[in-house]
Amino acid sequence: THNEELLAKCTKFLRVTKQYLPHLARLCLISTFLEDGIRMWFQWNEQKDYIEATWGCGYFLATCFVLLNLTGQLGGCVLILSRHFVQYACFGLFGIIALQTVAYSILWDIKFLMRNLALGGGLLLLLAESRSEGKSMFAGVPSMGESSPKQYMQLGGRVLLVLMFMTLLHFDPSFFSILQNMVGTALIILVAIGFKTKLAALTLVIWLLAINIYFNAFWAVPAYKPMHDFLKYDFFQTTSVIGGLLLVVALGPGGVSMDEKKKEW
Q1: What is the per-residue pLDDT across 171-228, written as a single tens digit (0 to 9) for each?
Q2: DSSP one-letter code for 172
Q3: What Gene Ontology cellular component terms go with this record (predicted)?
């Protein structure tokens, strides 16, 4: 059947790209932190003045905030890409997300909050991957099976990742929007429950990549316009969520999923 052919092609693609996919996933995942850390350097005074004016915290604390964001994000990215102290780097980036959520009042903007939670989902998956790498060093030691914390990290990561797609749903009566909402909702449910997970995640990667390039083309807007920064921020946040989905494609859904339960039936 057509579905079986599609699944076979997907499996072949995953086999060919297996060794490269995790590296690409990690690079995409840290892209928003890398971009934001570099932006802190080039917009040092603007960021410092914004925090000082918004919170009335004074020059010293505002400077510490910008410095922490710059070093925390760039340092975390270097550690993740070099595969050193990945778990500590992930916890550090979790802290940066929490700090920015409060400092930039993202807590009260549901769209930005959901996107930040989706970013946290990607980091959870990266944390789960680093745990499996740590265990692989003891490959000869008998094991009681996959560790529960890792399974639940993968489940939490998948569920948080799909929040990104909730912000992309358009509630207007056009046929295209209705179709996009129906297909998108079906795919995010499949990823969340872990059914046909790799195929659903790969389809979402392609869909999100197309949306990202079309709607967040910051390179087409002059750098002096405020819209340039908004689109750039959206572009790299979306790229990070794509990285999280690529980790799902590379590593699978984990133990707490319908795909895994099917093996037991």
Answers
A1: 677 787 788 788 888 888 898 888 888 889 999 899 889 988 988 999 999 988 989 9
A2: S
A3: endoplasmic reticulum membrane; endoplasmic reticulum-Golgi intermediate compartment
Q: Is 224 exposed, middle or buried (0-12, 13-18, 19+ CB in 10 A)?
A: exposed
What one-character DSSP code corresponds to residue 105? T
Cα–Cα distance, 49 to 46 (Å, whole number): 5
Whether 63 contacts 48, CB under 8 Å: yes
Q: Using CA atoms, how far apart are residues 45 and 93, in angstroms rounded to an integer?
A: 23
Q: What is the DSSP letter of 255?
A: S
For residue 134, give the nearest of 75, 80, 86 by alpha carbon: 86
* Rounded Cα–Cα distance for residues 180 and 252 (Å): 25
Place of tokens 């560790």: 147
**220 SS3 class:** helix
The 10s digit of each residue's pLDDT in 14-69 is 676 777 888 899 999 999 999 999 999 999 999 999 999 989 889 999 999 999 99
